[in-house]
Amino acid sequence: MHTAHILSAHATLDQKSKVIQDVKEQQNKLESERQRLLQCLREINEDRGKMDIAVVDIEREVSELRHKITETTEGDYATAKREVDRLRHELGQPALPSLQSTIEEKRFAYLNERRLNGSEKRPSEGISFAADGQQPPTKKARGRPKGSKNSTKKASSGG
Whole-structure pTM over 0.85, yes or no? Predict the structure, then answer.
């Protein structure tokens, strides 16, 4: 009778030991997955930080360009245009079109050309990481390699 209890207790102990081992293996797998995901999150946060810096830099450049355009348009260009229009008037020619209408014409022509020819290069592809000495972000391969699913079907059904 005692022998049966001892053997039963040993069997239960072996089962519990296996369960503990399985749970610890699962725990290790989960910790590995957690570490991998934390690393991915760190990389994402680094990329977001780089993009935030890029946005600030581009916004600053846009602001500087707008300031230069305004300064030139209201300064040297306005003075020169008035003088040219005065001379054209003296010669009996019509005044030159406004800068805004010239810009609109060029914008229309550019957009029309892109519409007719299709866009070969998207604007986001023009962002250069080389100026910062950085490599552009690369896509990581996801999923099953091409053809791997079909090759197993052919091998098992080929006869």
Answer: no
